[in-house]
C-alpha cells in the first residue's frame, strides 16, 4: 500500500495522551438511551461515541437496528456532549445517510469485509472523504482478505484509514466468542506498521469480565486503541448484552490499564520488550490449548484400547512419532535434545490419560 505513513497521520494529529477509545452501546435503542450513555461518557477518555444503527444479525427475527432515525440521535449526542460519533455502514445507502448526518467515523463490519463486492461499493460511496474509516477483520482468519479491503479503500483516495481486530469465528467452542488469533494482527502490524490498529475486546470475548485482560494484551502488543461496547444497563440491552460494560466500569478499566509510552531510548526498549513478551504469552496460551486438545484425543484412544483390551504403550507407534518430530523440530531450529525431552513429557502425560480411562 502506498502512502502508508499517511494513514497514521490522522491518529498522530489527534495528539492523544492515551490510546484511542471508541465506546458506546452495541445498538442505538431509544433516543433517551443513546443520550444518557453519551452524557455518562462525555468527561471520560472516550474520543468517539459509537452506536450501531443497522445491525446485521446472523438469523432473521432478531433486533436489526432502529435505522436512520438513530443518526438523528447521534447528531444530538454531538450537539449536547461534544463527542464525535461513529457507526457501522454496510452499503452505499448507509454511507450516504451517515455522511448526511455528519458521522465522524465509519467502520465496515466483519460480515461486510468478507465480500469484495460490498467493500468496493462502500469504497466508491466514500471516495475522497475526509472521514475516518476503519475496517474490521473478516469473519474468518484471512489476512489477504482483510488487507484487500484496506487496499480498495485506499484506492478510493481515502486517507484516514485503520483496522479493527475483533477476533475470528470458529465452530469449536472456546472461552472466547471470537478467537483472537493474535498472530494475524501481529503479522499485519509487522507488514504495515503505520496502519492504525484498534482492538475490539467486546466481540473477542463476548463476556464483560474478560474485557480488561484482552485490552491489556492488545496494548502490550502496541495496538493504537480500543473499541468497547458500553451501556448504562447492560443486562437489559437489546443486543449483545453479555459483552457490554457500564460507563463507570469503562472508566475503571481505562484507569487500571498499563499504558506504556515511548518517550526515550529506555522507554522504547521497554516497550519493544513488553511487546515481544506479550507475543510469547499469546503463543504460550495457544500451546496449552493445543496440548489440552491433544489429551482429549488421547482420552478417546484410551476408550478404544479399553474396548479392545489393547496395551497402552505401543512402542512402534511411539518411535515413529519421535523420529518424525525430531526431523520437524530440526527444520524449525529446535535441537534434538529439546524435542526428545518435550515429546517424552507429552507422551507420558498421554499415557497417564489413557491409563486413567482404562482403569476407570
UniProtKB/TrEMBL annotation:
GO terms for molecular function: chorismate mutase activity; transferase activity. The keyword Disulfide bond does not apply. Residues 267-358 form the Chorismate mutase domain. GO terms for biological process: chorismate metabolic process. It comes from the Bacteria. The keyword Manganese does not apply. Its EC number is 5.4.99.5. It is an enzyme of class 5 (isomerase). It holds the Pfam family DAHP_synth_1. Keywords: Coiled coil, Transferase. Residues 259-286 form a coiled coil. This is chorismate mutase. The lineage of its organism: Bacteria, Pseudomonadati, Bacteroidota, Flavobacteriia, Flavobacteriales.
